[in-house]
Amino acid sequence: MLKIGVILGSVREGRNGLAVAKWTTEKAKAFTQGQEVEFELVDLLDYELPFLGTKATAKQEEAIKKWSDKMASFDGYIFVVAEYNHGVSGAFKNALDFLNPEVKDKALAFVGYGGLGAARSIENLRMIAGQLAMATTQTNVNLSLMTDFEKMSIFKPADYHEGELKALLGQLINWSSALKTIR
Ligand SMILES: Cc1cc2nc3c(=O)[nH]c(=O)nc-3n(C[C@H](O)[C@H](O)[C@H](O)COP(=O)(O)O)c2cc1C
């Protein structure tokens, strides 16, 4: 059984990311019914990580361990990411900096969203993923606050994104299976 983590990287109060992450997880489960793959939504907000390098309290040490163990438990990932100033949010970059062996030689796909979509944030993350030895899929889903949300806050994705998500899942599952053999 392949385990894929759907990782919500936004912690902003009132975030749009939660609806996108739930849609991604529900659709991924529906589109892969009968396959040997399972999906779990992981919310960064559930992990009260310190800034990397600062002195962690005992509670924060626990959060670091919990985050590390959770991320290590997956064979592949879908990062659900917004665009913040043409890049990844600070909170998510900080969380990724705690990881290395946990995600090494694993596959990664992106579902991005933002004012104009999240193309720049996703490309930013591909560089970071390269350094973490993760294999990023060619296809991503790119959602715009202008066309896939009502009033920029009520998530109503255009139908064609389902086709993109199906293509993304095919690539992610293939690579997650392949990379499992070399770990
Ligand atoms: C500090 C900040 C910077 C942003 N920069 C961009 C940007 O460069 N490009 C873009 O398309 N959207 C940008 N946005 C819009 C966000 O992508 C959008 O608000 C998104 O919903 C944020 O994710 P969240 O709601 O899950 O926190 C920015 C939003 C914030 C708060």
Automatic annotation (TrEMBL):
It comes from the Bacteria. GO terms for cellular component: cytosol. This is NADPH-dependent oxidoreductase. One of its GO terms (molecular function) is oxidoreductase activity. InterPro entries: Flavoprotein-like_sf, FMN_Rdtase-like_dom, NAD(P)H-dep_reductase. Pfam families: FMN_red. Residues 3-142 form the NADPH-dependent FMN reductase-like domain. It comes from Lactococcus hircilactis.
